[in-house]
Amino acid sequence: MSNFTSLAAILACTALGAVSPAAQAATELITNGGFESPVNAFAGGFTTYTSGLDGLTINYGSVDLINTYWAPAAGNYSLDLNGSEAGAISQSFATEIGKTYNVSFSMAGNTDGGGNKLITASVTAPNVFSFDIAGKSAANMGWVTQTFSFVATGTSSTLTFVGDPGNTFYGAALDQVSVMQAVPEPEAYAMLLAGLGMMAYLARRRKDAV
């Protein structure tokens, strides 16, 4: 095999290795991230939980699962991280050491109480997010998408959301929680195309030579 052919093969294989996580990137790692599980379905405004939320652990305090009390970001349900007191929820999921993962979630706030609403979201380090409820209402919650990334340090990672005690009974609203492995950088695809293009060019030269 010539040096050029070897180089082309290396480029293609390297790019394929970088691109392969793309298939995993389409896989949602969080269970019941929209709080829509039929296990917890109910009719009415809201229900307070200290445990028993499908797929989620309530580490301490309590949370309110919201149905008709206000408009969710999507579906029928969302969460108030402060039930009768500030609460914390978490969920563990499989990860690959050294891989980057993207976390996203919808955030708003219980408009019955004043002040900014705070969420501390963490996997390997805490990230604090704030939401201003000024001008918002139960019908117009003003949901925003928040994001952060982390690099996995183990084969299992745990995402935790913590409500702010300062918000008393009127906490931050949470919906559409998602974790996915990061999509490969565009450079990986460019490398793949370059390698495949070089291999095609060399194959044509061989054919012309014959």
Number of domains: 1
Helix content: 10-25%
CATH class: Mainly Beta
User: From the helix content, strand content and strand pairing, which structural class follows?
Assistant: alpha+beta
Portion in strands: 25-35%
Give a short summary of the structure:
The chain is of the alpha+beta class. It has one domain: Sandwich (Jelly Rolls).
Describe the 3D structure:
This protein has 3 helices and 11 strands; from the N terminus they run ααβββββββββββα. The longest helix has 24 residues, at 186-209. Mean pLDDT is 86; it is low at 7-13 and 20-25. By secondary structure, it is α+β, with helices and mostly antiparallel strands. The chain has one domain: Sandwich (Jelly Rolls), CATH 2.60.120. The chain has a 6-stranded antiparallel beta sheet with strand order 1-3-4-11-6-9. Strands 2-5-10-7-8 form a 5-stranded antiparallel beta sheet, with no helix packed on it.
What is the element layout, followed by pairings?
Elements: H1 3-19, H2 21-25, E1 46-49, E2 57-60, E3 63-66, E4 78-80, E5 88-94, E6 100-109, E7 117-122, E8 126-131, E9 144-151, E10 156-163, E11 172-181, H3 186-209
Antiparallel strand pairs: 1-3, 2-5, 3-4, 4-11, 5-10, 6-9, 6-11, 7-8, 7-10
Helix pairs in contact: 1-3
